[in-house]
Amino acid sequence: MADTPKGFDNGLTNYGDRDFARYLRRSFAKSMGYTDRSLDKPIVGICTTESGFNNCHRHFPEMLEAVKRGVLAAGALPVPFPVISLGEVFLSPTSMVYRNLMAMAVEEMIRAQPMDSVVLMGGCDKTVPALLMGAASAGKPAALVVGGPMMTGRHKGERLGACTDCRRFWGNYRGGSVSEDEINQVEGRLAVTAGTCAVMGTASTMALIGETLGMMLPGTAAIPAVHADRLRAAEETGELAAAMAINGGLTPDKIITRASVENALRVLLAVSGSTNAVIHLAAIAGRLGLEVDLDRLNTLSDETPVLVDLKPVGAGYMEDFHTAGGLEAVLRGLSRQLHTECVDITGQTLAERLARPLTDPVDTGVIRAPSDPVSPVGGLIALTGSLAPGGAILKRAAATPGLLEHEGRAVVFTSLEDLANRIDAPDLDVAADDILVLQNAGPRSASGMPEAGYLPIPKKLARAGVKDMVRISDARMSGTAFGTIVLHVTPEADLGGPLALVRDGDRIRLSASEKRVELLAPSEELERRRAAFEAPPPVAERGYAELYRRSVLPATAGCDFDFLQAKS
Ligand code: FES
User: Fold this and answer.
1) What is this structure's pTM?
2) Atom 1 in ligand 1: residue holding the nearest Cα
3) Nearest-atom index, ligand 1, CA of 162
4) Which of 85, 141, 182, 374 stands 20 to 30 A from 407 (CA)?
5) Distance between CA 213 and CA 143 in Å, rounded?
């Protein structure tokens, strides 16, 4: 069998004359100043996501230089290429809508361009899932390196980190205990360095999941963005990717397996990670014909302890997590529950990794021993029941314990606009033990499943000291948010799911112990409402928005496009 072409000979442009295509490609490549010696090397593509609209990636130029250094030192040619970047707070209606677009760009650019392996550089919430989804489908050896978390800021002697503290201060401002001057001062102290949000939000959770899946160099997920070790991790990732390009490396389907996905779920539960990670992990797994089963999630949750004491649920920040021992310490705490036969991009098994002695003792104030967990059960559970027959997610670790078993009267908002218009109205009929319901904020809705599940506490209740209420929606919630919040209700309201049938005054019962959320209205009345249901008119008629509306899968299937999942 002929050798597979390497480097610039890979995937020649089709002119009907291979030799001419090679000649033309090399002559154009020479316009970039490459020597023949460089042009003959295997190529490491470096998929970069720097953007003026992505503050979290502002240190990527320096990281890119470090990756290139590693590739060159190991004897391959580094060739960076851009894909779209997703800066969480700069996208409308929400970054979630564009995750699949980025994943398509990643997949197609890895496949279409001549590279033997690829380094994936990401960090901000949707970028890591998009990179892994695209790379999983492209099928070339790939190594992920993340930007790492921000350092914390300071305000009146306390540490601040985006964006759990953003929400806390904003809630206090709404409640009247923080002045306008102070909230403006805090605005400049929440996000003070390059890097991803400083708490165990979606970006940090996905970085840990990327490493647990095996797609990242061991020990690198939580290194702070500004730490010199972050650059060393980038250089070493470049070296490894060069070895993959020269010798052949494991493709993502050999690394992301049923067993490694289950390990990733364990870690998600043990770190009380973001609810968004359930969606992203389902989407990544779906690219390889695997699934995240919600019953299995609940089984794992009931037997996996929370080991990590970080915001938004606990006390610390990601910089504390890193110095306390990072993912290595969490994996050791969970070792008896993990599938240790899984391999990572270096080719080692998890068993081999865990057999090595730790270089530093674990700070058990931040990462607890399994014998002394923060909680004996995992941070997330899936719910089902008459209100969410297809499933929903509750971050029980972030909930008020007294609300985990609760029955209350529904106060319904039919859209984000309705919510914005009425939530603070003085005459809103709402009490502290009511349940706030938001409809039409799911994947297919006009709002594109925003992080709106953290409905604000109505101002009049916030001013009376109410800090939490049961809130239910088909939306998502930021990984940095907290509260008794039921999310991702499936089927979503836009498709006529039971959530669409809830009316003001209906009784709803949440039981975390039974893992149920029930709409208690009489069945004849629900049938009457179902018969009268009219789907909101579709808002998109062209372009990517229309592709999204037609193709997006439910939250429980990862909100990927139906045509991008692996064919079974
Ligand atoms: Fe980028 Fe939070 S905004 S990680």
Assistant:
1) 0.96
2) 124
3) 2
4) 374
5) 11
